[in-house]
Write a structure and sequence with these properties.
The structure is a single chain. The chain has 13 helices and eleven strands. The chain is an alpha/beta fold. The chain folds into two domains: 3-198, Alpha-Beta Complex (inorganic pyrophosphatase (n-terminal core)); 204-324, Diaminopimelate Epimerase, Chain A, domain 1. A hairpin with a 4-residue loop joins strand 6 and strand 7 (225-231). Helix 2 (27-43) packs parallel to helix 5 (134-144), helix 5 runs antiparallel to helix 6 and helix 6 (151-164) crosses helix 8 (191-199). The longest helix has 17 residues, at 27-43. The termini are far apart. 41% of the residues are buried.
Length: 350
């Protein structure tokens, strides 16, 4: 049986399902969990049977922006002793499930649905898609099987797509991504409201935190690498949350000439959570893998235990190696107006 067919069959035939995502969840992780539960309820429930579907995420807090996704949704409440099926969403490795990794591992049947190219395929059935987000992968599965897709599921899917691509400016954006968005426009889903919520709704605390990060900004490799750092103390002093750190690393990659942007956040245990961004053909996924993490070509992350000086030395070296494979080239002009003749003098005689 094809892995996708088996996935659908297993979901349909399971009476109890645990759905979970990675620790410190982003919008795509949360939205994909809620969207999948809705899709199962609407399309894969056997007649006269009420499935038990529980959602789990290992996190201390969900920030203001992402809390809207799970508003009214029950989390982390295990209603059965043993689940028939466990589904991991948007998670590249088993340890990233945090304290719910054991629950996943001890379930007799497991499915892993993800879009990270560095996924370790840790389930019985692994479905890793080349998509902008896990939400997009779920939408494409739903379309393949002609599922009923509600407006609420569309909103969740769009939220996952735009947040994982930094408003369609990074990551794996394909023709299919744009087709999905076109379908949502045709359905008159209020996409502008969702974009405004995630990208024009920053707190003052985030603005102060951004200032702290930019104050730490340093450059390496002839200004092709931008490095910023924050501490948990910075976050506390700005009355910010972990969610407020999301997107700060993008400010480095938006600087002309910068090809790799790094944000290192010091944790309370003196370890560092590190985010990476890149432009064009420059990949940071293998850099993250070398440091024990993973991700995509242009978006990746890892956790580092050790001193900041050691982190910078190893990481900058890996970044320099990647940049050496992509020497700076003169960029072609965006527009070619060579076929446009200069205006002829109106007084010029024929």
């Amino acid at each position: 049986m094809h892995p996708l067919e088996k996935c659908i069959s297993d979901i349909k035939n399971s009476k109890s399902i645990a759905i979970m995502c990675h620790t410190a969840p982003d919008a795509d992780a949360l939205a994909s969990m809620v969207a999948l539960k809705k899709l199962i309820r609407q399309n894969l429930s056997i007649e006269n049977e009420q499935k038990q579907i529980d959602l789990f995420v290992d996190t201390d807090e969900i920030g203001e922006l992402n809390s809207a996704i799970v508003n009214g949704v029950e989390l982390n409440n295990q209603h059965v002793d043993k689940y028939d099926l466990a589904i991991s969403l948007d998670c590249a490795s088993l340890p990233r499930l945090g304290k719910y990794a054991e629950l996943f591992k001890n379930t007799k049947n497991t499915i892993n649905i993800d879009h990270h190219m560095t996924n370790e395929k840790f389930a019985h059935n692994n479905l890793v898609f080349t998509t902008s987000s896990t939400c997009e992968a779920l939408y494409r599965i739903a379309k393949i099987y002609n599922f009923e897709i509600s407006d609420e599921v569309c909103k969740l899917v769009y939220s996952g797509i735009i947040t994982d691509t930094n408003n369609l400016t990074q990551g794996t954006i394909t023709v299919n991504t744009h087709k999905i968005i076109t379908e949502m426009v045709q359905r008159k889903i209020n996409l502008d409201a969702l974009s405004e919520h995630f990208f024009k709704n920053n707190t003052k605390s985030k603005a102060y935190l951004l200032k702290q990060a930019l104050d730490s900004l340093t450059f390496f490799a002839s200004d092709r690498i931008a490095f910023m750092k924050l501490t948990k103390q910075d976050i506390s002093e700005c009355n910010a949350t972990v969610e407020d750190t999301y997107g700060i690393v993008n400010h480095g990659i938006e600087i002309k000439g910068v090809d790799i942007s790094i944000l290192a956040i010091k944790q309370e245990d003196n370890s560092y959570q590190v985010s990476l961004r890149s432009k064009g053909d420059i990949s940071v996924s293998e850099i993250a893998v070398s440091m024990g993490g993973g991700g995509h070509d242009q978006v990746a992350a890892f956790h580092f235990d050790g001193l900041l000086a050691d982190l910078k030395e190893k990481l900058i070296h890996l970044c320099r190696e990647e940049l050496s494979r992509h020497p700076v080239e003169e960029k072609e002009a965006l527009f070619d107006n060579s076929d446009v003749s200069p205006n002829q003098d109106i007084n010029e005689e024929d």
